[in-house]
Specification:
There is one protein chain. This protein has helices at about 35-45, 65-70, 85-95, 110-125, 160-165, 170-175, 180, 215-230, 235-245, 250, and strands at about 10-15, 30, 35, 50-55, 75-80, 100-105, 130, 155, 190-195. With about 260 residues, the protein is of the alpha/beta class. It has one domain (about 10-205): Spore Coat Polysaccharide Biosynthesis Protein SpsA, Chain A (Alpha-Beta Complex), CATH 3.90.550.10. It is globular. The N and C termini lie far apart (about 35 Å).
Length: about 260
């Protein structure tokens, strides 16, 4: 593992139109623009990213995402409907990615500075996998959640993706892009947690829910975006966390699902 990138750092956005709890949420207008546009706009400010790619499934209901990508000049890869590991690994191979910054389409509050700091931390510490989030499914994962739910990014070795995808990974593990990398007991990969500390100490609010999975989540995101966009198109996620943490009335919108 090199201490600096020697190949492309590709940011993948895992997205599908078929959300059961909030269908079509990825293209639903968020403060006047599709949520996916908001996500891409924010990622685009990260200096560490060489390419942004939407990674979706082959089913016809995802055709609007392909059309969106073509219209906005963003790469798109279509793969397995249920095997998310294979889908992302194949995208990694397609774009010759040395490193993947793995995001999902339900987290519009991703921060470009956070991405850059995570990529730097990943390379400086010569890791194979780095995440902001507590991996509850991993028995050997000691880290706790420190960021709000939805302020989530994973930085992953492209080589690791390709290696584990060639393994006989159970179907329920393949439903998750990265679980086969971090949920193992052979210590094959160097994994790390990026915690809300240091410059991010003010972001340490694991009790907050900032992901968009339900109508209530979208209602909250709409309010936060409309308030924070007054300060400029790319507001700091720290400002969103500060606003939400100071407003119990806003927290109450989706508190029962946190």
């Amino acid at each position: 593992m090199n201490s600096t990138p020697s190949g492309p750092v590709v940011c993948t956005i895992e997205a599908r139109m078929g959300s059961t709890r909030l269908p079509g949420k990825i293209l639903k207008p968020l403060a006047g623009q599709p949520m996916l546009s908001r996500i891409i706009e924010r990622i685009g400010q990260a200096d560490s990213i060489d390419k942004i790619a939407i990674v979706t499934a082959t089913s016809a209901d995802n055709d609007p995402l392909v059309e969106f990508a073509e219209h906005h000049g963003v790469d798109c890869y279509r793969g397995s409907e249920d095997d998310v590991l294979d889908r992302v690994a194949a995208a990694c191979e397609e774009f010759a990615a040395e490193t993947i910054v793995s995001l999902t389409g339900d987290n519009p509050f991703i921060d470009p500075v956070l991405i850059d700091d995570m990529v730097s931390h990943y390379y400086t510490n010569q890791l194979d996998y780095l995440t902001t989030t507590h991996m509850a499914y991993a028995e050997n994962w000691p880290a706790e959640r420190t960021f709000p739910r939805g302020v989530t990014a994973q930085v992953v070795s492209g080589k690791a993706f390709l290696e584990v995808n060639r393994e006989a990974v159970p179907k329920d593990i393949r439903e998750h892009a990265t679980m086969a990398i971090y949920r193992r007991d052979d210590n094959r990969y160097r994994v790390g947690a990026f915690n809300a500390e240091g410059n991010y100490a003010g972001w340490r609010h694991p009790e907050l829910r900032m992901t968009v999975d339900l109508p209530e989540d979208f209602e909250l995101a709409e309010i936060l975006f409309e308030n924070l966009l007054k300060n400029g198109p790319i507001f700091s996620t720290g400002d969103a966390i500060a606003l939400l943490s100071s407003r119990p009335d806003l927290q109450a919108i989706n508190a029962e699902f946190a």
